[in-house]
Design goal:
Chain A is α/β, with parallel strands linked by helices and 198 residues long. The first copy, chain A, is built from seven helices and nine strands, in the order E-H-E-E-E-H-E-E-H-E-H-E-H-H-E-H. In chain A, 41% of the residues lie in helices and 21% in strands.
């Protein structure tokens, strides 16, 4: 029985990484798929853990080899999801969760129709702006760029399957887990048959 | 924001009532819609609590008045879901859960396309037979009738949205709750906007 493919998107500062970490800690049957990127490591980020850090040349070689389930350019950097690793995990019956942008999510939908798309939504734009400033990893210009992109991101919400508002962190995590638990027993997937006694 | 309409079906002996009671105890925003029926009360059943017990004449009058969201004949008795009460609750933003048969579920789907249909599935036919015999509320003939109907019921599973296998009671309840929590934040419903800050 194949595993399920989940996508978690959301604007910068919405708390996506925290939600991801908490949900992954709870579910050993869920694997985080590491993205490839051409952007330089930030802070404590480690190659092969947070991202596969590639040069632009390496990235394009992989791209021409049809090696990405999706790829996108964001703020001048390229990001991609290595196809082979993801499909291998799913075929083994593992669930996989991807952290991709709205462009990436749209491609995932095209390349893998059964994917479950979740958008992590800020409780309000005011609150998101406050969180971005508090994070202090970027200067004001970068923050302004992110807020300008936000409008596009929020408009893309309708292409997703679920919208989880991250007001209270625990509640948002509980909601993402509920989506996983519900999708597992959707009749259109065969997955629910796992729970039958032989 | 409108509430959601859930349907829980499942063969006799699968543990539907127990699951319903447990889920209802946990969620005050979920209301159980009492069905009308022409079958006589069984055991401790109370009119207006377990069912609205109607005469065949009363039932048909209501039926001709288009007063049921669904109705069905099962083993010579009629069952129906009073439309007015259910729609009033949903309009107030309450979720409603119905306990209806496969025929009723199909009608609900037709009359209320946004309904969420959940089928409670036995872990195996052997296990269901054991539970039916253990229940001791019916004679062997009635049990045989139920088991004959089971085949039809299991074939109808594909018309549902979700299949929850009731092997471990707590796990099945958790699964039904997950379905409710996930459906609340489906993008196709506006309900998720409730969770935004003003």
């Amino acid at each position: 029985m194949e595993g399920l493919l989940f996508v978690l998107s959301g604007p910068s500062g919405v708390g996506k990484n925290t939600v991801l970490k908490k949900v992954l800690a709870k579910r050993t049957d869920l694997t985080y798929s590491i993205s490839a990127t051409t952007r330089p490591p930030r802070g404590q980020e480690v190659d092969g853990v947070d991202y596969y850090f590639l040069s632009k040349e390496q990235f394009w070689a992989e791209c021409q080899n049809n090696g990405f389930l999706e790829w996108a350019e964001i703020y001048g950097h390229y990001y991609g999801t290595p196809k082979k690793q993801v499909l291998a995990l799913i075929q083994k019956g593992q669930h996989v969760i991807l952290d991709v942008d709205i462009q990436g999510a749209a491609q995932i939908r095209q390349n893998y129709a059964n994917a479950v798309l979740i958008f992590l939504h800020p409780p309000s734009i005011t609150e998101l702006t406050r969180r971005l400033r508090e994070r202090k990893t970027e200067d004001e210009d970068a923050i302004k760029k992110r807020l300008a992109y936000l409008e596009k991101e929020l408009a893309a919400v309708t292409s997703y399957d679920y919208v989880v508002v991250n007001d209270q962190l625990e509640e948002a995590c509980r909601r993402v887990e509920a989506i996983i638990n519900a999708e597992e027993v959707k009749v259109t997937r065969g997955y629910w048959k796992r729970f039958l006694n032989p």
